[in-house]
Amino acid sequence: MADVEEERLLAAAPKAKTGKSFRALTRNWTWCHFSVFTLTFLSYALLHACRKTFSNVKSTLEDEWTGLCSPGNTSLYCFVEPKQTWMSDPLFKDGDEAELFLGELDTIFLFMYAVGLFVSGSIGDRLPLRAVLCFGMCSSSLTIIVFGSLTGWLKFYRPPFYGFIWAINGLLQSTAWPSVVAIMGNWFGKHGRGIVFGVWSACASVGNIIGALLVSAVIDYGYEVTFLVPSVSLFACGVINVFCLVSHPSDIGMTLSEDTESESTPVNETENLLNKDGIHTQCKSDHSRASGYYLQRLASSEEDRRCKGHRKREPSNDDDKNDSLSSQGKKKDAIGFLAAWKLPGVLVYSLSYACLKLVNYAFFFWLPYYLSKGLKWDQHKADNLSTLYDVGGIIGGIVGGLISDWMGVRSPVVVFMLVFGAPSLFIYREYGVTYSWNAFLMTVAGFFINGSANLESSAIAADLGKQEILRGNKEAIATVTGIIDGTGSVGAAVGQYLVSLIDTKTNWQNVFYFLMVMLVLSAICIGRLCYRDTKQLWKSFKKRRSA
Prior knowledge:
Oligomer: single chain
């Protein structure tokens, strides 16, 4: 009986939808679609750039905290004054002790980030998404300035204070990801969601590249400046979002179907005034020129009321239409936290992402450190080279999303990338000793590992929060996204301390073996779902051949 119930839940799990080219998908997009895509992409990219700053200055912080900087030695980027006093009483006695503390900071950040994700996902489904996002961005930027810039300028070095500030930063940053995924889910439907979110989820990797390049460019001015520059940019972007970001089509008087296709059928004598989407031409033009608060005021104008009067819902059997707002503009209820856990696919993908995010964030937090300390390469060189992992992730996310849209399911694509990710790590560890080979093999590893992580955390999370079982009466994208990313962050939090512990007690080779095991476990978690989806694909293929 339990197996029957499990099969029923697996069968109810959401699948990607096919049958639409990307060009046809974008044909009905308005200016607001492109605005939402750009602003949410930039917001999370800058947030990740701020995170990347910390990971890329780890070796510099270790040198400073252990007193390894000698007077006049500018190659280690040492800017502590007075140097003689600091070297006589350093914060940590050796590099191993400093490395463990850096791992503890990663664990503290990710643990509080996970706690915040479980809470902020539910908050995002109940409060205005724009307000939640902007608050998190602006407050997090101020926290990072205190952590990395003010403490350095004031020469205030206290491990408990570092831990406290970094914990607060983890809580504040947790508001961003569920909010931006929910906003994107409100504007972009399931048709083509794999490729749309595959491109959009590159925001984290683009942010990592921006952060690494910024560190490499300004590290000579002091590590304090490397924290300041991206934080100020993040704060400015948060302010822009307050006035320009539209979190839901209903905020501007638009009623879009889940796949942003036509929702209305021209009727009566006004038929010639309506375009193919059933929206008055003048109204659509006005929506394309306006944004933010101005657009909300426009929605209440006489012209916009006249436009909305011409919209009529077209009867359809498309399940996506269930997610649209009703013509009376009724607000959807937010799903409960425990009820979201019970949605088909949420638990298995959450466990899978816990193992996968551990590996992905091990590269995120420790790759520049490994290149600098493990391979003894210059920090400028290490910072620039580490960006290739994110380049591979961008390509992997786009290709994986495109293939999953074409196949109609996502789990076989993710499992394939995870299975090939493990040997790519082994090959990288064994043969990535030269600069050219390291660059190539790092890109390949990023393609499989970071690409699958982008797919799980964005497109799949949006699918799970907008699946058929909800029947349009629940608001669940932010909650489900918070659960998946929060569970992933718990795994990543434990993993970052284990990475530093394994390295200090043994060596980096064992660290890579540990990461390979986690990739295999990630694939096993969704193995049953992958088997079911693959079996259905094979049946469909045989049916088409026999037809």
